[in-house]
Every structure is written in C-alpha cells, then in structure tokens.
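Format notes (please read before filing issues)

Several people have asked whether sequences and structure tokens are stored in separate files. They are not. Every record keeps both together, in the order shown below: the sequence lines, then the token lines. Line labels are part of the format and must not be stripped during preprocessing.
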Amino acid sequence: MGRSGVEPNCVSWNGMIAGFNRSGLHSEAFLFFQKMHSQAFKPDGTSVSSVLPAIGDLKDLNKGKQVHGYVNKLGLESDNCVVSSLVDMYGKCASKVEMFQVFNEMSKVDLGAFNALIAGLSRNSLADNALNLFNRFKDSGMNLNVVTWTSIIACCSQNGKDLEALELFREMQAYGVKPNFVTLPCLLPACGNIAALKHGKSTHCFALRMGIYHDVYVCSALIDMYAKCGKIRAAQLIFDSILQKNLVCWNAIIGGYSLHGMAEKAIETFSLMQKNGHEPDSITLTCVLSACSQRGLTKEGLYYYNIMSKKHGFEAKIEHYACLVTLFGRAGKLEEACSVIKKMPFEPDACVWGALLSSCRVHNNVSLAETAAKKLFELEPNNPGNYVLLSNIYACKGMWSEVDMVRDMMKRKGLRKNPGCSWIEVKNKVHMLLAGDKSHPQMAQINEKLNELSMEMRKLGYFPNIEYVLQDVEEQDKVQILCGHSEKLAVVFGLLHTPAGTSLTVIKNLRICGDCHKVIQFISSFENREILVRDTNRFHHFKNGICSCGDYW
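Then the structure lines:
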C-alpha cells in the first residue's frame, strides 16, 4: 500500500487483520497485528477485537495473554467488544478461570460478553453451569436476545441435554423472542439425538412458516434430524429439494446413509457429489469409511482411505484411522486393525484404541482387548465404558476372577457402569426406559406383554440366549436380566401405546445385544410392525422378521 503512494492508517490495518481472520488465516492475522504495532501504528479496540478470535481459533493461550496484557496497558477493559472477545478467546483456549475472571470484572454486564460466556461454557462441556447462569440472568429481568437463546439451546443440544433444548425453544417463543435461521440448526440436533420426530416435524413446519426453509444450513440440519429419527426417505426428499447444494448438505445425506447401513447408496452419492463439482473434505471421507465398515466392505473402505491423499490432497486424520480400525476389526481382521495402529504417523488416541477394544468385544479376543484396554486406562482413566467392555470380554470367556479384578478397579476409582437406557417417542412425548428398572409406573403391563411374546416365541423354538448376560448368576436369573434390557422394554411400551401396525423408533445408548436383536426380529413379524432401533453404531430396520443389518453389526 505504501509503495503505491497510499499511506496505510489504523482503519486499513484493522481491515487486513479482520480479513485474514474471516479467511481462516489466523496465524497471519496475529502476525499482521504484531507488524502493525512494530510499525508504530497504535492498535485500538477494533484491532484487538479482530485479532482475539484468531488467537482463540489457534488455541494459543500465551498469545492471548499477551494481547490481554496490551488491553490492560491501553485501558481498553471498559470496551465491551474487547471484553466479549477476551471471554470468547479464553473459552476457545479452555482457560475457564480467566474466562470467568474477565466476565466478572465487568462493571456492568454486557449482553455480548454474556453470550460469549455461554458459548465458552458450552465448548468446555459445562452445560449445567451455562444453564444456571442463563436462568439467573433471565430471572433477573435481563433482556436476552435471539443470540443468547440460540447459544443456550446449542449448548444443551451439544452436551446431551436434548430435552432441555426442546423446552428452551418453547420458552424462547413464550418470551416473545423470534427464532431465526441460526436457531433451528442448533435445535434440530436435539430432536435427532433422542429421535423426537414430532418435535423435529414441528420445527420443520416452523421453518416453512418463517420462510427460512430454503436456507441450506437449515435444510442440512433437517436432513440430519430426519436421518437420526429413522426417516431416511424424508431426509433424501429434503436433500433433493435443495437447489444450491453445498458440502454441508452432501455430508449430511452421506452421513445419514452411513447411519442406516446403506453403504452402496453412500458411495453412489459420494461419486455424484464429485460429478457435481464438490470436492470432499475430511468429514465426507469419515462418513464414507463409516458406511463401508457398517457393511463389512473392507476392500472398498481401504480404497477410499488410500485416495484421500492421492486424489483429494489431504492426509488422514485421527478419525479416519479410527474408522479404518473399525472397518478391519468388525470384519474379524484384528491383525490388520493392529497394523493400522502401528503404522499411524501420530500417537493413537482414545477413539482409535476404543475402536479396537469394541472389535475385540465382537470377536471376544482377550489378548488384544487387554492391550487396547491398558492404553485406554491411561488415556481415559475415568471412562467407565472401557472397564465395562473389558469386563464383558472376560465374562464371555468365563474368566470371573478377571471380571472381579476389573470391577474392583472401578470401585477404587469411584466409577459406575452407565445403565442401558432407551428412548421412544409416543404421542408427542419422549419416554425413557432403563434396563432393569422396576419403578416405571407401567412395568407390570410391560412385563405381562413381554411374557406373552416370550411364550409365542418359545412355541417357535426360541429360547433366551443367556450368553449375553455377563454376570455370574443362576440361569433363571440370567433369563430375567435379559427380559429387563431397555430396548425390549421400550419396544413393548410402544406396542402397548400405539395402534396396531404403527411403526416404532427406539434409541439406545449402548450397542444392541444379540438376544434383543433376535427378539425384536420376532416381534416385527408377529406384531406386523416395522421397528427401528438406533444403537451406538447404526440403525437396525426390523421388518417381517428380518433386520437391515443382515446380522452384521
């Protein structure tokens, strides 16, 4: 600029910093901020507010503290935009103490800083803190805007508080705050997470009434929601209706096909996407690899893994290696899965070792399971799921002393097994059923119906597969435990409360067990129902006694 005879000023410097940041060139934004200072231009509040988001995205706490020191030196602590940017930066850098400190030092709470704090708490999985803070300020009469409500809804849907997100959306409108095209993509994942289809459809109608249905991000969220609620055909119809498709909506539909085990359709759509001029990103390849693993397509999965760098020009990330381990592991090729881990160019994380441990559970390989579990105990010492998986593998082999050893480890660490839990939406309400829960008000009717179905199954030669009860108890107790699995309870609850022939959708927080899989196959035929069960791996479509997974899951 100087060479062309035009002297740069503070405004032009700020424009360059903001431009670099908006373009994702975060390091360049910070370097330009430094250069501005070194060339005797005094950065102002706008300069600082522009560079802090870049530092947050870099997650460089030291740089952030340097700029914070500069803020104090210049006396910019009263600039609300600067304070909001500092709160945002500390949140992105997972520096919770400093984030709260900056916010609490404000003489008067600014709504922008409050919104940044809610977002920071969400990023750091502090949803309870965010909800408490939100309710406190709401009850104090603070005039919360659409950004605030959208932030807290996003916080809940991203941190497992899906019912709270749905309630907040209702409350938001009761307070007279109008949701916008950003709110809906934040809400819809909550509907999908718990398969609250009626709520999802209601949100879809809201988008139509508000005239924001054709926003590509709203449509992408609707695709994801319908896929997670078991309505992959509806997801496909929405995808087909989008005139200007971007990578986000292509990824959403490919991910939906993967979730439903429709590997061939996912691969076909992946090819179509490229023919339409869209280059895949790392998320696209994760969806394709996951789809291949659902169907045991090891050859195809390896092909798509190899073309990542050769054809598409980006190196595999940790999630791609985890998919590859699952691909080989689930197919019983555990040595190949181990080879993938050994050849990784960086240290495997908990997702990679977890993929191996889960595969060992499917094939009951004790020695490899112990290797994977040892790594996981180091990486995630407080994750009870890893201990439970290893314990289950020991139990399958009748190694009860080893089972007791793992359970003692959990006791010493104060860890408890997460109970099996299933959700089903009936008459616009989401019902939750816990494994072995005797306190449910309709448990007597559920057990009575389950016993009737069991008698019919026995007439056809079915007997409960007690191999799936991983406890050292008497055989009759094992049968009773199987009857209490949450997915069975949820399906029977649905049978009792819906008209004959109505399809049922159940969501489970764990992998469906083999006995429940066989029982639900029978129920789908005997009751003439289509039953969809989404476990931690995929959707199972049960119809006429057959499951879409082909008994491969």
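For reference, the curators noted about this record: The beta strands are 421-426, 429-434, 504-508, 531-534, 539-543, 546-547. The mean pLDDT is 92.
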